[in-house]
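In the current project phase, our protein records have gained a structure token line. A sample record follows, to show the layout:
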Amino acid sequence: MALKIAIIGGGSAYAPGLIRAFLNHAKVFGGAELALMDIAANELGIVHRLGQRMAQAADVDLRITATTDQREAVANADYILTTFRQGGFEARHQDEAVPLEFGVIGQETIGPGGFFFAMRTLPVIQRLVDDIKAVAPNAVIVNYTNPTQIVAEAVTHFGGVPCISICDQSLDDQRKIVAALDLHPASVEFESVGLNHATWSTRFLIDGDDGVALMNQHAERILARTDVPARLKRQFQLTREYGRVPNSYLQYYYYREELVAEALAEPKTRAQEIIESLPGYFRHYEEQSEADSPQLTHVRGGSVFGDVAVEVLRSLIARDHKIHTLNVPNRSALPGFAPDRVVELPARLETRDATPLVQPALPHEVMGLLAMLAEYQWLAADAIWNGDRHALERALASNPLVVSLPQARRLLDTIIPLQRAYLPERWH
């Protein structure tokens, strides 16, 4: 039977980038079926037609199907790639806007916003797990859905289905850092460890030179430039402070007050900006779906999106045991974290899972925050998968950006009525 990969969220603006990445690895995926699944039928149809035309133009034997029925998409699949956003960007706007009403940063994976996102995501994951057990018992989940850490904790502990979680943020961060340095190196070696969206570099070489030293050497010049975004400048500042490169999301903790002030000053949330841009993406996709040789010049996620997921799937299929940075159970590989806690670190892909590689301990000055985040994300996974309203309150109160039970209750009192359609009845 031909290889089948189901893509849950296959009608998103990101999906064409994924399809392009699959086509770039035609030798491995030739003859396979990509089963696109999405509840947004119109967008799914556009992506489906575009994907078929892209495969035809590339002369690649890749069968691309589409359905709004999740169980149909999953049936007999070998791998299931999750890349969906329950509630769409309208719900993300609420994730971003509601916390700001309480003086807390609103963001799709960080703080209360990430917790709200997980509240919508995990019920879908639960239904997906049930479908996998019923119609695809040998399938492996490759999770690309945020908030990655909470999803990975939940599926690992409660799903009963093999799951490897991935994220391209570290790759995106290193590319932006190298570009800001105005370098065009032949090679970049970058490794980082910690938690998803909360990692610190352990190795950074640019053509054999110390990347951290280069960042520090050019820090003042970078900080003075008006064309470098504040997010990237904060990475340079934190690198100089701690002697290693932080994941760009760590700014939300180390520059908490600045980020809240900046968000409050913005006329729109990031979600509102994306909502305005989405029609342009799909117009481009629809136009290219009618072209003899589609040229994707306007793809959400840029050139990075999809590459990591497809590389991981390629390694699993080829059984080449390559090492990738993944989110998997620790198994005592990273000191300071429980063996069953999900961590992000280099891991060797096996047939259906990955073996984390032993790492040196991170310094105490960064471990305090990471330890708190690790326990919060485990509590969040447990509360959302299994718990009642009180369990949600206690889990959210343990978030490093909340740390207040009354605040957690107020946040939940506000968001649950707004997102009622996506949430279990027991929480209302």
User: Anything to note?
Assistant: Residues 13 and 279 are 10 Å apart (CA to CA). Residues 111-135 form the longest helix (25 residues). The chain has two domains: 4-166+277-318, 170-265. The chain has a mean pLDDT of 96.
